[in-house]
């Protein structure tokens, strides 16, 4: 599967909005066999925030990107990928830093444009591009 940076960003925003000091969020992997995601006879519904993401990204893409973000040390996991209910404690410090650099829609659009121009849409490239864009905005703000 290809890396979808919009999915990464939306996932990080979602986790940030739905976690807290003593509050974690979870995602239901509806791609698992039905017998693994039933409570009694009823399927476990995804939380509302996951339903919103599923309007933009399919289940496999979303679960893939949760796994990717965990491997990239952007998410602090409670339960491992492969569980029907994937628990996430919060963003890691790296996740918070990355999200702060790409939070603004205008900056995010510019970062994606630069990534497309240079032909590299890896997470590391986007991280570096976002840092440069932020640095340039800071310089222009102070007239440097």
Features:
6 helices, 3-stranded antiparallel β-sheet, alpha+beta, 144 residues
Overall pLDDT confidence: 89
Structural class comes to: alpha+beta
Rounded to an integer in angstroms, the radius of gyration calculated over CA atoms is 17 Å
Helical percentage: 40-55%
Distance between the termini: 42 Å
SS strand fraction = 5-15%
Order of helices and strands: HEEEHHEEHHH
Question: What's the total count of β strands?
Answer: 5
How would you write the strand order of the largest sheet?
A: 1-5-4
Shape: elongated
Number of helices: 6
Uncertain runs are: none
Largest sheet: 3 strands, antiparallel
Short description:
The chain is 53% helix and 12% strand. It is α+β, with helices and mostly antiparallel strands.
């Amino acid at each position: 599967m290809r890396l979808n940076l919009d999915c990464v960003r939306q996932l990080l925003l979602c986790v940030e909005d739905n976690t807290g000091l003593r509050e974690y969020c979870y995602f239901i992997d509806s791609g698992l066999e039905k017998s693994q995601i039933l409570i009694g006879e009823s399927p476990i519904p995804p939380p509302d925030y996951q339903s919103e993401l599923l309007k933009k990204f399919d289940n496999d893409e979303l679960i893939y990107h949760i796994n990717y973000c965990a491997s990239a040390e952007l998410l602090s996991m409670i339960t491992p990928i492969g569980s029907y209910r994937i628990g996430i404690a919060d963003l890691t410090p790296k996740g918070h830093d990355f999200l702060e650099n790409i939070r603004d829609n205008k900056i995010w659009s510019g970062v994606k444009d630069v990534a497309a121009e240079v032909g590299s849409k890896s997470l590391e490239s986007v991280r570096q591009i976002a840092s440069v864009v932020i640095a340039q905005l800071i310089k222009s703000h102070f007239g440097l």
